[in-house]
Amino acid sequence: MTRRIRLGMVGGGNDAFIGGVHRIASRIDDRYELVAGALSSTPEKAQASGEALGLPRIYDDFKQMAIREARLKEGIEAVAIVTPNHVHYAAAREFLKRGIHVICDKPLTSTLADAKKLAKAAEQSDALFVLTHNYTGYPMVRQAREMVANGEIGKIRVVQVEYPQDWLTNHEEFKQAEWRTDPARSGAGGSTGDIGTHAHNLARFITGLEVESLAADLDAFVPGRQVDDNGHVMLRFAGGAKGMLWCSQVAPGNENALRIRVYGETGGLEWAQEDPNYLWHTPFGEPKRLITRNGAGAGDAAARLSRIPPGHPEGYLEGFANIYSEAAEAIEAKRNGKPLPPGVVYPTIEDGLRGVEFIDACVRSSARNAAWVKL
Amino acid sequence: MTRRIRLGMVGGGNDAFIGGVHRIASRIDDRYELVAGALSSTPEKAQASGEALGLPRIYDDFKQMAIREARLKEGIEAVAIVTPNHVHYAAAREFLKRGIHVICDKPLTSTLADAKKLAKAAEQSDALFVLTHNYTGYPMVRQAREMVANGEIGKIRVVQVEYPQDWLTNHEEFKQAEWRTDPARSGAGGSTGDIGTHAHNLARFITGLEVESLAADLDAFVPGRQVDDNGHVMLRFAGGAKGMLWCSQVAPGNENALRIRVYGETGGLEWAQEDPNYLWHTPFGEPKRLITRNGAGAGDAAARLSRIPPGHPEGYLEGFANIYSEAAEAIEAKRNGKPLPPGVVYPTIEDGLRGVEFIDACVRSSARNAAWVKL
Amino acid sequence: MTRRIRLGMVGGGNDAFIGGVHRIASRIDDRYELVAGALSSTPEKAQASGEALGLPRIYDDFKQMAIREARLKEGIEAVAIVTPNHVHYAAAREFLKRGIHVICDKPLTSTLADAKKLAKAAEQSDALFVLTHNYTGYPMVRQAREMVANGEIGKIRVVQVEYPQDWLTNHEEFKQAEWRTDPARSGAGGSTGDIGTHAHNLARFITGLEVESLAADLDAFVPGRQVDDNGHVMLRFAGGAKGMLWCSQVAPGNENALRIRVYGETGGLEWAQEDPNYLWHTPFGEPKRLITRNGAGAGDAAARLSRIPPGHPEGYLEGFANIYSEAAEAIEAKRNGKPLPPGVVYPTIEDGLRGVEFIDACVRSSARNAAWVKL
Amino acid sequence: MTRRIRLGMVGGGNDAFIGGVHRIASRIDDRYELVAGALSSTPEKAQASGEALGLPRIYDDFKQMAIREARLKEGIEAVAIVTPNHVHYAAAREFLKRGIHVICDKPLTSTLADAKKLAKAAEQSDALFVLTHNYTGYPMVRQAREMVANGEIGKIRVVQVEYPQDWLTNHEEFKQAEWRTDPARSGAGGSTGDIGTHAHNLARFITGLEVESLAADLDAFVPGRQVDDNGHVMLRFAGGAKGMLWCSQVAPGNENALRIRVYGETGGLEWAQEDPNYLWHTPFGEPKRLITRNGAGAGDAAARLSRIPPGHPEGYLEGFANIYSEAAEAIEAKRNGKPLPPGVVYPTIEDGLRGVEFIDACVRSSARNAAWVKL
């Protein structure tokens, strides 16, 4: 039994959504122990939220936490940053410079300038930086990535990726919506930043291809909205593949309908986040095949991140937990001075920078009548 | 019992595909009688194909047929033109100018110039012109159109339409592929012309919106191919709606996966050609609803074109037959000097012209690095 | 071009449902010509219905039609019998004894005694007897049958077949319901006779196995209903396979949800009538495979009965037409003194007799507290 | 922050499957702390397994654990029993008689005699008894139950429930299969005991109806197998509803395909375990409705057990965790002398007894040629 990793948390107070998800994700495989937190933006709320969770050490703010934990003999080894986007940079920097590993929510930052500075800070730190592009933790996403890498669909020609939602169809006044539609806190991208980055990252993760240029037509359909709530994007990948990316928060009937289809010279793959235990593989000229998590035809990459037999669905929280467990593998390897075990993969600062570049490019393109721009 | 409409056919000889489809479609509702044909491009083949079908009157070519049938007392009242695209214009013109109704396969013509001339010819003729954009004949497509018109999803914001196939994934040498990948016969658009036009037409038909401008990134992924086999298109509709259109012939696992999703201010609709008896309706804030052909929630527009009870699927041929039967309604109304009965709708020369404009715009845009072009 | 088969029809007048289906089915492949009819149970209605269809020869009743047509030089070669069940026997007998081929709706008769007499009459006649168990005409049902015969799923262990509907959930007073719930006209079985026989026949057709004994628990859930509207049946097949059959007319949400699953020692098959262009094949220990009509992995038996490429769905009417076209193959072979072409299969009087035995056994079993009875 | 419940575990050692599931389930909502275990049937393995988990207190066997923990001031408050079935009774008894709450895997026991004795032991104990019929923890199962209770589908007529798997299609020699096919350890039922009980329990849970009598045709298709691997069961419920239950371990292509359909006088419901975030509701005469977890149309019963927004799937582990959290609610209420909070429901000893009666009735019926037997 390896000792659990001592974890702190910034953000994720009482009325936040994603903080609770991170906490469950960190618990599922029992490799973390949450021991400290600065859970809210005011000392009072931070205190109340910390007490509600029974946290051993509660701080007024992230800076205080970083300073004090770094001095403790048994201080936190890693911190989860789950605040609104505009806080990511300042918070992450404090921990990185003190050698505390950072597990940070996406997008990396609210501006490209911050993203670049943070990338530099991460480079200069000995600590790890893990970005929770959680959908890369789904076993069948790993399966897809492995199949592409193994050449099972041949050279890629076309990538269709989309992430429609409907929760912002109307003008809503609840907290989750509030900061996500405020450019000062979420960044210049609305749907592009919140979910388009997930789609972009998923496409990169599965195909191993980088977007070289894009043309984006962004809209804010709801009157008064300051950031895009719908994004239509055409993609050109290095190496010649082409793609389309659609993200929307105003598509009634869609909950979190992230879906990707990849077509190569000899076959296709299709995966949908809402039914994540399935992967369609369509080798050209053969019957369609439905591969299931841990079922026949699923390979090592998926099996590594799978807990239970096929037909017993694993979901969003398990996928999220896989990011935490991959991070634990990396943290423990580092702790023990060992190399990263084979197969361990997690989204890095580099992926975060690419994501913010994607948002920036979408906004730039759209401002120029959806002209093609380079990333 | 109304007398059957005497029908001729141009094209559709022994080794053609779509001719047989037209013949079945014309038979299903028993409103046509095929009595004459010029079924192939050489007199020998035309003769042999006509005999194989037991046609009463067989002609060497369409011009001969048009001239002679026009003189007969009981000559054909309508002609189905099912040749490769580049023949449509010349053939249709001959019949139109002799007052014989034309039922013509899509796209209208292989060039925009031809399309405009044919539109003029149709305008000057007393005969009807029906374009077999057959997917508009599916009952649940009519249902979708009716629901949009009735305001059931509110003002439209987003239209996602796609038509992927995989049959041209490799370089193939069979007849269907041959003329469709030859710009001299199919026109400048490959996938855009053959299937992109269907997608474009379907979007127009259901939403009632016209595409004002588009940006198209077209590719010919198969080496040596002279026309596009994949098209990525961003759409801007009059009135402010935005859309994406994807057509592909190189997407392994896709057969005829035409699919459309329409999102308005209060709800969404989704229909897929391969499962055509279903229509998803997703009113915002209510459970998703699956409407079935002739089932609960389906309205008059779908019922008009439905033959059998819900749960007994009607398919492609019945949808195609609906175009023929709508045409029969129009022809009979004309024959009897009566107005078109309420509810009767079929694709016209105008739709054909729009389709060729769409192809032309895609090709123009792509040639200019996918810049926005007006239609 | 082979001369069309001259066809007559008994039943199928103005307000009937299934007659129209038979007429379309006979037209789709252009191998029949409907030239005579006795379409209703009263001379007046028969006359009116015949005129509405523009029939050349209209008769007051089936006996008159059989007598006169048999004497004509160009009289009908085949007759479609599409009346309520209790008329099948008397009508079919008249044509069989005059050497006119019979295409008869199912179930064969309303009583087992009639079925046995009709089987004898068919045996003594030189004419063919074709029963329209239309679901056996679906290409993917043929595909399933071929795969079982080829041993692709190994020795069969388990057969799950069901046919739920919901149209008789309440007490309804429309014509289709009326005779189907009247034991004098439909026979002793309600749901068992109307749809249970389809399920039973489909299981036999695909697996090649005969039901040896069964235990049936039948219910009439709607107060006052005289025949069963729900049947639960356990099946024991010759050779040791076991099965369950469920038929229901009171299962809200089910339209014509005929579905069969067959499991052998090395794989499984699954087919659903409402999505008939797909067949799941699940070889044990391999990914699930989805075979599509005319798509990769589909074999000769399905291709024989397929008109159009994969992804363009064929439906109920095409499946029904396949029965008519198989019958046409048999009739023409007979006409020309040739053997039945290889691959041609259609439901026979023997299948009809098995079906009525099934209904009879269900009713007998249920009357004895669902005891096991032999067929 | 409420203090975590101190939990022990019996069974669930290194090479067991279900023990790991219980441990994750107990962690997800952070209401338990695993502090003691007797994880295997030999002291050596128990020690090794306990050390691998880093358990504070490791015991050689469950009796030792029960005795010592009961004496500790901070001893376990609850124990999870996750051994093979034949050990449940003896183990549970030891804890119940010392007032330690029992969370026990299903089926309750391997014999009906044991089940009755255990029911008596539970009755005489002050401790709670929770049976992990985990599928009742899925939010959409709660939704279905709530809808039935609210009369949304009317009086129930028909229940179709099934649980097919394929993992025992061949004779397998791995550990999970070994004890499950040994009547001495699993009990007289094979598939009926392992998964048929889940189906039976799910039907009871959702409908609120009890099975009064059944007729079961059980088979052991794999040569040499000593317990059934396929069960066909007809059900008669108190109050007149009828049902069918199918369980199988030899149905290739089925992983854990538990599925239930319930039909009442005014509507239907359908739920499938492999896609657990969806519930079909089919009110008669209205379009089908797809209700999603936490989505529109989902009610309080589902929301109580839901952690994340719609479209982010929760799976098997979250459903299992819900049983643990319901148990935690009950344990904490007991701890604080408070009544069970409204809405809290978990499977009890009574459900366990019903399950073993179901297995016993299936075996009895099958031995008598599938005669009807009372439960």
Automatic annotation (TrEMBL), chains A, B, C, D:
Task: Tell me where in this chain the Gfo/Idh/MocA-like oxidoreductase N-terminal domain is found.
Answer: 5-130
Top-level division of the source organism's lineage:
Bacteria
Identify the residues that the record assigns to the GFO/IDH/MocA-like oxidoreductase domain, covering every copy: 141-270
Write one Pfam family the protein is assigned to: GFO_IDH_MocA_C3
What Gene3D superfamilies does the entry give? Dihydrodipicolinate Reductase, domain 2 (3.30.360.10), NAD(P)-binding Rossmann-like Domain (3.40.50.720)
Which SUPFAM superfamilies does this entry report, sorted A to Z? Glyceraldehyde-3-phosphate dehydrogenase-like, C-terminal domain (SSF55347), NAD(P)-binding Rossmann-fold domains (SSF51735)
- Which molecular function GO terms apply here? nucleotide binding
Query: Which protein is depicted?
Result: Putative dehydrogenase
What organism is listed for this UniProt entry? Sulfitobacter noctilucicola
